[in-house]
Write a structure and sequence with these properties.
Blueprint (H helix, E strand, L loop, with lengths): L1 H17 L1 E4 L3 E6 L2 E6 L3 H4 L4 E3 L1 H12 L1 E2 H12 L3 H17 L3 E4 L1
Helix pairs in contact: 4-5
């Protein structure tokens, strides 16, 4: 049991540090007024009707994912940019990543 917990912890740390995430390239970011939106392109516009409004934190994460980034790199950037605690940065990122994965907008690679 203890050994399994250690393995699980190591795998999670490895994923946070080395697993790269990137957007699928089917959206562009647009600023309209004071708001930021993810706008679907081509076939994606048939699947997702309308635009996805992003708050400031989500837009910041989105921009990092356009270039490909690890979870750890994004968490560190959130802490630096927004003066967030590690706990809050990890929670915000986890929630946003879950939403992106559910919508099949996020691609991961080792």
């Amino acid at each position: 049991q203890h050994r399994r917990a250690i393995c699980s912890h190591f795998i999670q740390r490895y994923k946070r540090k080395y697993l790269k995430m990137k957007l699928n390239g089917k959206f562009i970011l647009k600023n309209i007024g004071n708001s930021t939106y993810a706008v679907p392109l081509g076939e994606a516009s048939k699947e997702i009707k309308g635009m996805i409004k992003l708050n400031e934190t989500a837009a910041f994460i989105w921009k990092m994912l356009e270039k490909e980034a690890s979870e750890e790199k994004i968490v560190s950037a959130l802490i630096s940019e927004f003066k967030a605690t590690r706990e809050d940065a990890e929670a915000d990122l986890s929630l946003f990543i879950s939403s992106l994965k559910e919508a099949k907008i996020l691609v991961t690679s080792a």
